Amino acid sequence: MTQVCTTCGFIHNCYCEAIPTIASDLCFTLLTHPNEFQRETNTGKLVARVIKQVNIREWQRKQPDPYCVPENSVLTPVLVFPDQDSMPLTQWQTQHPMASNFIVLDGTWQEAKKMLNRSHWLQNLPKVHLEATQSSQYQLRRNQEAGNLCTFEVCAQMVRELESSDDANAMLTFFEQYLQKFQAERSGHALPSCSQ
């Protein structure tokens, strides 16, 4: 009888052994929309399994999160969000060589925009944007705008721009495998195993 993996929760297509080892020194806070915790399609939880320094926090509209307030952290909090006053990620890193706490809004793009618009404390943070060169692999949600990356892909692109293309490629290879396993799991069948 097939059992549920106690780590990933999949029955037929456990992906735990496919998770790559990434030697990233980046620190992320995934500021997560409350709706996102109930969604099977959330990719933030995958980031936390691949990268060591990841804090998953629930977004509160009026209450600044302690992890995201400059006064409470040794790391400089910076919001990863394309905006009129955002600067390229690599430029930020050049001008601020000290370690940063990169805050990623974890939700749909529509939710992420609302999170930013409704929280003045987020608007006051410095912002950076990515120079993404790849289109998104993520097809698990409808009505997503072309060119937008999911949370996992955002973090992989940041690893690419600031640290290592090899690690970023390993993350995206894993993500492609995960998406296949997720679709098969949702359909209730196991993918055939590949013998090397």
TrEMBL record:
GO terms for molecular function: tRNA-uridine aminocarboxypropyltransferase activity. Keywords: S-adenosyl-L-methionine, Transferase, tRNA processing. It is an enzyme of class 2 (transferase). SMART domains: DTW. Its EC number is 2.5.1.25. InterPro entries: DTW, DTWD2/TAPT. Pfam families: DTW. Residues 1-187 form the DTW domain. It comes from the Bacteria. Belongs to the TDD superfamily. DTWD2 family. PANTHER family: TRNA-URIDINE AMINOCARBOXYPROPYLTRANSFERASE 2. This is tRNA-uridine aminocarboxypropyltransferase. It comes from Vibrio barjaei.
